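Notebook, bench 3.
Goal today: get a predicted structure for Cell wall-binding repeat-containing protein from Agromyces lapidis so we can plan the truncation constructs. The sequence was checked against the plasmid map this morning, with no discrepancies at the termini. Length recorded as 439 residues. Pasting the sequence as submitted so the record is complete.
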Amino acid sequence: MQRVSGADRYETAVALSQRFAPNVPVLYLATGTDFPDALTAASAAALRGGPLLLTQRDALPSTVRAEIVRLAPARIVVVGGESVVGASVFDELAGLTPSRVRIGGQNRYETGERLVAEAFPTATQAFVATGRGFADALAASAAAGAVDAPVFLVDGLATTVRPSTIAAMRELGVRTVRIAGGTGAVSASIARQFTSNGFSVQRHEGLDRYLTAGAINAAVFGSTSGSISSAFLATGTDFADALAGAALAGGLGAPLYLTQQACIPHPVWVALNQLAPPSRVIIGGTAVVGDAVAANTPCAMVWAKPAAGRITDGFGPRDPICTPSGCSQSVHRGVDLGTGCRAPIYAASGGRVGTAGWVGTYGNFVRISHGAGIETAYAHMVDGGILVRAGQLVRAGQQIGWTGATGAATGCHLHFEVIKNGTQIDPVPFMLQRGIRLG
């Protein structure tokens, strides 16, 4: 576990850039007081092999200037117009590099398109994130940098994207568009527009910013141990530290996860432990990402009742089944809740979906890993009634499906199991210990 931080956002970006040796091919410089320009610049910096540093509008911080001198960049790209990075800062850079250029537009969307056009000769995929908020785009920028993909910002609440965005994607050769966030972040009509223009569209979303980052990372980096060498964690409540962190993470081919200050959101903790990166990098000081996060401490597990209805069949041995050839003893490995048909089913706690599909006599079946050797399982969902997919992170109480009578069920109900260290245990006392009464 490593922590990279400075006295403020500018020094934290410097601390991150110190992982680069001198004579970098390019350095990107963006404002430290707002997020949009740097979000697109992060994936560009990762592609070009340089760091992203932050500056004030009218003054280049002395620590940033000293770092630029150390890095001796062959080129500096100033991101944004004079309203965000002033002329005095741009002029000061003349003595620090053989080449400098300013890339800006009339707004954040045009600036992003120009940055992409300048940095990316081609790309088969592109990320799309809302320009109205920073959270979804932070993880998307790191993931994009890891796969040499650009990030385009859009007005996520609009019904259409700029024609120039579509044209830019076509010019690059983009075939797949990855949308960061749900329809509340980037509207369904925007997704349909990309589809109607011939792009394959994938949406990576979760119920909150932490789960959305997890969904992006699972899609790009996978969800099992051995796939990556490191992972970055940054606060999910501010953008500054993660901007430069996204550029470095992308260049290293590492995911960026978002965390709370005092603990790691439980589903994210599950995802990180399953990924098992050999090293983790905390971005920012203890005021933004506390020591408990560095110690891999999850937020408290929250538990919820998986469905309404009384218990109609308990855990344990059932009455023997007898035939002329003899009797056999069966064991019920969970409890049945008499919900009726098409009743909602909820995740009993947060975690990652391991199975979501048809499994023998279980019928339509979902199994969720909650970490610490605990899993829950949900069986007999109605056809078409599974609302989650394998690999997805879910929160406690999130709806994951609808009850049915698939598999060996004789009527609509939920068969609910709790698995501890690979063995089914009685869910009733287990849940009661956690404040949840079944039935």
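The longest strand covers residues 374-386. Residues 231 and 262 are 18 Å apart (CA to CA).
Flagging this for group meeting.
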